[in-house]
Amino acid sequence: MLEWLNMKIADNKRKLLMIIFIIPLFFVIPFLQSLFFSSTTKGSIQINKEIEENYIKSDKKALLVFFGYVGCTDVCTPVLQSANDLYMSKEFKEYKESVEFLFINLTPEVEEFQPDLFAKYFNKNFRGVYLSKKETLNIDRAFGIYFSRGLSDKSELNHTDNIYLIDNSKNRQVIKKMYSTHPLNKKQLISDIKTLLKQSI
């Protein structure tokens, strides 16, 4: 009996050590991926992938798309503030009429009006998009994004924080590039938007 009890204690210790070392990886790996992505690619990756997503609807020629969730403060807030800085900069001024920024919400349990309200808190021209649960299940196939529920707080999400540039001209949607936000290379992004808009004429 004593031997069995000692084995049980040892087994529980092993499980506890695994939890202590493995759980932090869920937070560290996405962060390291972002750092590696930023340092090895100068902040952007060429994609050129055509998609058909009904929730990305706009009459603008170019779209900037970011995935997050309503109420996110540690990731979404700084990214959306940075996007607002870009949008309000004098360098971006001439492209405002041709580019729309979309905040795509990843938590379907919120009210449908909340994503747009959240996005417009940062800039009145930003648009928030509500996704159903079914739509969130297919999102990683189109964009390759990572997101999962928080381990301690199920109302929070761990998610990637890249911004996507989409060519929305010529009756099709093409993901042109993905940009790291650590930090966001605004000069490169503006240059890519300029190139995209010239090609869409």
Characterization of the model:
The chain has 201 residues and is α/β, with parallel strands linked by helices. The chain has one domain (44-199): 3-Layer(aba) Sandwich (Glutaredoxin), CATH 3.40.30. It contains 6 helices and 8 strands; from the N terminus they run ααββαβαβαββββα. The chain has helices spanning 2-22, 25-41, 76-88, 114-122, 133-143, 186-199; strands spanning 44-51, 62-68, 99-105, 127-129, 147-149, 157-159, 163-167, 173-179. The strands form 2 sheets. Strands 1-8-7-2-3-4 form a 6-stranded mixed β-sheet. β2 (62-68), α3 (76-88) and β3 (99-105) form a beta-alpha-beta unit. The chain is globular and about 60 Å long. 29% of the residues are buried. The model is unreliable at 22-40 (pLDDT under 50).
At the fourth level of CATH, the homologous superfamily is Glutaredoxin
Domains counted in the coordinates: how many?
A: 1
Q: Output the structural class.
A: alpha/beta
Please provide the count of β strands.
8
As a percent range, the share of strand residues is 15-25%
Distance N terminus to C terminus?
A: 80 Å
Overall radius of gyration: 20 Å
Named CATH architecture: 3-Layer(aba) Sandwich
Q: What is the N-to-C succession of helices and strands?
A: HHEEHEHEHEEEEH
Rough outline = globular
| Major sheet details | 6 strands, mixed
Low-confidence stretches: 22-40
Which CATH first-tier class would you pick?
A: Alpha Beta
